[in-house]
Amino acid sequence: MSSTENWIAVGSVSDISPDTGTLRVMVEGEAVCLYKLDDTVHATQDRCTHGQASLAEGYIEDGLIECPLHQGCFDIRTGAAVTAPCKEPIRVYPVKVEGDTIYVEANP
Predict the structure, then answer these.
(1) Hey, what CATH topology would domain 7-105 get?
(2) Phi-psi category of 5—alpha, beta or left, where left has phi over 0 and alpha has psi -120 to 50?
(3) In terms of pTM, does the model score above 0.70?
(4) Most buried among 2, 4, 42, 87, by the most CB within 10 A?
(5) DSSP tag of 21
(6) Strands 73-75, 30-37: parallel, antiparallel or unpaired by DSSP?
(7) What are the boundaries of each domain within the chain?
(8) DSSP notation for 25-94
(9) What rounded mean pLDDT belongs to the chain?
């Protein structure tokens, strides 16, 4: 985690859909997608860098989020674009969980 203390409470672990594994939240006016992979919560920007679709509406498989519009995939942990047509990475946000509350660092 970075040394800045700009953590924003965005929801609860229990708010993340058990069906999709995602939750769309807002962080300082930006749409952010939360993911639950195993027992770890991750956060990325919610918009695909290729087609601008909401990644919270995508599909998670093997640590990747598949964009629902053109099926390009991003690595949830690193933000890397891993399949075409996506070429540009997505932003990844630092996350911490205290109890059931999820915090995202707004300006890492």
Answers:
(1) Rieske Iron-sulfur Protein (2.102.10)
(2) beta
(3) yes
(4) 42
(5) S
(6) unpaired
(7) 7-105
(8) EEETTEEEEEEEETTEEEEEESB-TTT--BGGGSEEETTEEE-TTT--EEETTT--B-STT--SPPPEE-
(9) 92
